[in-house]
Amino acid sequence: MATLKLLSGTVSSARTHADTSGEVRGTASTVTGSVSTTFTTSFRLNGRPTKMDGTPNLTDGDVVTVVGYDEPEFRAVGLRNDTSGVIYRSEMGIADWKVWTVMLIAGFISLFKVTRGAGGLDSEGVLMLMVSGVTVFGCWTYMGRNRALRAQVSKLLR
After folding, report:
1. Distance (Å, rounded) from C-alpha 40 to C-alpha 156?
2. What pLDDT sits at residue 45?
3. What b/e sequence results for 80-94 when a residue is b if at least 16 CB atoms lie within 10 Å of its CB, and e otherwise?
4. pLDDT digits (tens, 9 = 90+) for 33-61
5. Backbone angles phi, psi at 34, to 5 degrees
6. Can you tell me the distance from the alpha carbon of 4 to that of 133, in angstroms, rounded to the nearest whole number?
7. Which stretches of the chain are DSSP H helices?
8. What is the C-alpha to C-alpha distance for residues 107 and 20, in angstroms, rounded to an integer?
9. Tell me: the pLDDT tens digits for 25-35?
10. Engineered SS bond to 20: which of 37, 49, 89, 125, CB 3.0-4.6 Å?
11. Residue 92: pLDDT band with limits 50, 70, 90
12. Are 103 and 138 in contact, with CB atoms under 8 Å apart?
């Protein structure tokens, strides 16, 4: 896992980008579908290209401290605006969290079906039990890593 890096400097060229995706279908009386929008803010920090998910309130000339990953374009996961005193954190892994939630529910449904059956476990039941266990373990591990990352970002931005 990549280590977090701390940068400080002056913001320039701050811009927020919206990415909208989805599909809407229907007639004048019936409309179905869904649309979602994600926001990314990009700026230069002492001339270095930086991006962050979300919409931190930045103005050219603000002095900020960011925590993130050292990539060709620095990817910030936390930002403290030293000019205004406000701290921002990007939603770390929210899409992954949704997927793991669905998998966790599916794992518990599988577990319920296996334990509800009459008699002993057959090979399909054992397989479903193993899938349930791996899914629950994956969710637990992911949530622990996410909490640890949030704590580390908060500590670095103090």
Report:
1. 22
2. 95
3. bbeeeeeebbbebbe
4. 888 888 999 999 999 999 999 899 999 99
5. -150, 150
6. 31
7. 94-116, 123-157
8. 31
9. 877 778 788 88
10. 37
11. low
12. yes
